[in-house]
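Request: Mind sharing a record?
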Amino acid sequence: ETNNFNIIYNENSSIVAQELAKNIERWGDEVFTFLGQKPKYKITVFLNNDVDIVNAFSAFTIVSLYLNNNSYAFNEFGNNWLETTFKHELAHNVTRIYDYGFWGGIVFSQMREIFIPTWMHEGSSVLTESKTSKEGRFSNPTFWSKERFLVDNNLNNYFYYYNEDPYLDGSSFYNFYYQKYGKEKTISSYGNY
């Protein structure tokens, strides 16, 4: 347990949990500072490496990271998977509870999210992971080459099978919006949708 997080892990994830515990407050503060909001509650982070896949998700006050073997250390591009993915999922969590008046908070934000397109969810989180670390997808030429491929060949849903379209399209939009209108307008665009 740390000031802002509870880390729950199984025995096989203990090495990863130690690495996360060492960095979680710093990584969390970077995300909170970038998004301009800090949750009023502790976020529970679940680590599980008894799975065959590598994935993650965020819901309510939870960030869940599924690992296999030592995949936490590096993603397919050789970056720190644990940092990048934790920041990405934490960004989902923080933007979900961002103070949107009546529609903010834990319960209503889940209902409100039904109406926000997936590319906005994923694009804003890719922006956050990239702007708060040197290893987010924006610094990855392979990630951008996929987007360039789609644009150059006028393709839609080409990477849909791999569920990458919302990440590619959303991050491309948010990167453009961030460069054109700045951080404050970009972050508030999510709640203003």
The beta strands are 5-9, 43-48, 50-59, 62-68.
